[in-house]
Amino acid sequence: MIRLAFIILPLAVLAVALLALALGSSAIPMTAVALWPWDAAALSDQQRLIIENIRLPRMVLGLLVGAMLAVAGAALQGIFRNPLADPGLIGVSGGAALGAAAMIVMGGDRFVGPLALPLAAFAGAVIATLAVYGLGRRHGMISPPSMLLAGIAVNALAGAGIGVFSYVGDDLQLRQLTFWTMGSLGAAGWSTLLPSLVPMLASMAGLFLLATRLDVFSLGEREAFHLGLNPHRMVQLVVGLTCLGVGAAVAAAGPIGFIGLVVPHLIRLSLGAGHRVLLPAGMMLGAVLLVGADTIARIVAAPAELPVGLLCSLLGAPFFLWLLRR
Amino acid sequence: MAPRPIQAAGAVRLITIGAPTTEIVFALGAGDQVVATDTTSRFPQTAATLPKVGYMRALSAEGLLSLAPTRIIAQDGSGPIEVLERVREAGIPIDMVPDRPDLSTLDSNIALIAGRLGREPEGARLAAELRQRLSQNQPPTPLSALCLIHPGGGGWMAAGRDTVPDLLIRLAGGHNAIDFAGIRPLSLEAAVDSAPDLLVISSSALAQAGGVDALLALPHLAATPAAAKRRVVVVESQMLLGLGPRSPEAVQRLRAVMAAA
């Protein structure tokens, strides 16, 4: 079963990636797209530009963000031993949204350029996670339950802050903020992709190295401690790495829900809960789902497009309910 | 990759983003060159039936390029900026049209668009005509007007200073009953205190309120002079909030009610 999954999932990643390159609101013949790496002359200049500068960076960003959200969700659920944990719970999304709101409303004309908003969102994510982490410590020891509670409180505070900025902001800023919170890969280009690529890859590599220790940790904190693991250090590492990777993902694409929550559950149900399977399989499934959803989002309303985060929640929430009732 | 024009010669294919921008392009007689607009562009009828590239602040780079435009004329605030950047990289020129509620901006916007379309004479004619229609005789008694926008989740919003409705009210010879800046939530007490002689409301907001009678029966409006005299001016939302060729029509409606006072 596991072996089969590790044949099917890479093939699915490949298939969805190719589909994302081939489909879009511009009608570019599939045969020309298929030949593009070898024979760029089969495409007009504009078609090549659409594939190389619009579809390709967007597909790569989609793969990375989907993979990152799923891996982070799996690792957090492992560390908190709580099936409802997702990257939003440690304050990353709320903090990023607050950072984005602050930049949209207060940044004005002083901070323009394509990186201002992602940087503000990333900074917000880091600050909120540090706050959750700091508030979750008890007598110098980190306690996952109090971290979860601190996460709820910090998210509520971030929500209030966003409310204040929405009140102060004008109509245009409000709209911009609303669309940002729906999550979209539409801003992807090489210049915006590259800065987010490194933190996401580093975060995923780090979490993969922790897979065995996550298995030990899932036995329980005390048991992990007796097996020679430092639980305190472990929480620090996982929270730090998730914050880095998901912060970069949210900065590049806005908050995209349900992938971090649903994908680990799907893998656990079908392949088991061992992190050495869960993390790589989740990575691939997350990438497939997000790029697949984004491809749908790009073509259903062409030449307009849906925010992919909206589509993910629209499909993810009922699916999660079905998973619960099954 | 160097930007280059996609179509060297041949038909002009325009995409216009933002209702006032679209209306100006059509008023200049270039409507037949427009191949698509955004979802806020609902006037004239032809513009409403053209393909839609989505909401003006949630555009798609490939969606825009798929229509093979030779030029995109967009109101300030269209975006996201990264999307417009992608489209510029593809060699499509994008003109950003300022969005400020004053007449000199309307003049310069018309000149800007007319220049880009090679229709300078039409532009000069349109600007002069709008100026002339906007500067007609003022009503004898200046009235105070309260402009109500959509009743969003948190109650009514009113248009204060530095907004298009404020400019329209002043052009009609009245003054705004509210003196905060921008479009903001209006507290019910502030609505009563503002004691407007006249209500200006967008047609969609009036529909949500349930018609003129239901609107004037609202407790915070029932006590106002406007309700007592039943002075309500209904203006279609895009006409009320965007400064463009239809603005004189809105101003004339306001003047008509003020003149009857």
Automatic annotation (TrEMBL), chain A:
InterPro entries: ABC_BtuC-like, ABC_transptr_permease_BtuC. Keywords: Cell membrane, Membrane, Transmembrane, Transmembrane helix, Transport. Gene3D superfamilies: ABC transporter involved in vitamin B12 uptake, BtuC. The keyword Membrane applies. The chain crosses the membrane at residues 58-76, 88-106, 112-135, 147-168, 188-216, 237-267, 273-292, 304-324. CDD domains: TM_ABC_iron-siderophores_like. It is found in: Cell membrane. It is a multi-pass membrane protein. Belongs to the binding-protein-dependent transport system permease family. FecCD subfamily. This is Iron ABC transporter permease. It comes from Magnetospirillum sulfuroxidans.
UniProtKB/TrEMBL annotation, chain B:
InterPro entries: ABC_Transporter_SBP (IPR050902), ABC_transptr_periplasmic_BD (IPR002491). It comes from the Bacteria. Pfam families: Peripla_BP_2. SUPFAM superfamilies: Helical backbone' metal receptor (SSF53807). Residues 13-261 form the Fe/B12 periplasmic-binding domain. PANTHER family: HEMIN-BINDING PERIPLASMIC PROTEIN HMUT, VITAMIN B12-BINDING PROTEIN. This is ABC transporter substrate-binding protein. It comes from Magnetospirillum sulfuroxidans.
